[in-house]
Design a protein that fits this description.
Blueprint: H1 5-13, E1 19-21, H2 28-39, E2 44-51, E3 56-68, E4 77-87, E5 93-101, H3 110-133, H4 149-170, H5 172-181, H6 184-197, H7 203-222
Antiparallel strand pairs: 1-5, 2-3, 3-4, 4-5
Length: 223
Amino acid sequence: MYSHHPICELALKQGYNFIFVCLETSHKTLYEWLEFLEKSGEVTTVEKKEWDGRKNLIYRYRYADRLPLRDEDSSLEVNWCEVTVINEKTEEIIYQNNWITNHKITGNNVEKIVKAARSRWKVENEGNNVLKNHGYNLEHNFGHGENHLCELLLSLNLLAFLFHTILDLVNYTYQKVRELLVTRTTFFKDIRTLLKYLWFKDWSHLFSFIREEYVQFKKVNSS
């Protein structure tokens, strides 16, 4: 959806750059031009090997410049790139995807552009997945109330996630508590249980209590 002409044009008018997924099934004209450029040797290929800790991977990048986004004289011209990730030993294709962008693509920056493109799914998988499945219960907000309650609960949820992220970056006690409790689900369950039965003067007191009691618990169980 994003890689269609109106969205790309709007992004540029607002002063934004873009990197959008662009599949052959939805962009016939662009891929016809790409086929022509490939036959004339104007599609560049760059390969890089990388060890992921278990196996050697081949990252094969392909890119081309100034492709029309649609079959019209007034069409935007975009730059196209592709990555194919291959298991060197088995020759199995692990991942493949294609994008269009207004950024100039070169052999020096194609890897960075692909990483930026793939980071969208990293945000969705790691951010939205945490909000939905790891203690924030985001999906439960939808449908509450008759006017603005669902929007209010969503805003509070996002604010909580924002402050937890900040604490995870700058607050040592919070970092140690998260490290000890490992998962967010455990973290939230323990907080709910403690706040139900005990009183704490502030959040620092609560986090210090969790940390000290957990350490003491580990000592008792290890002796």
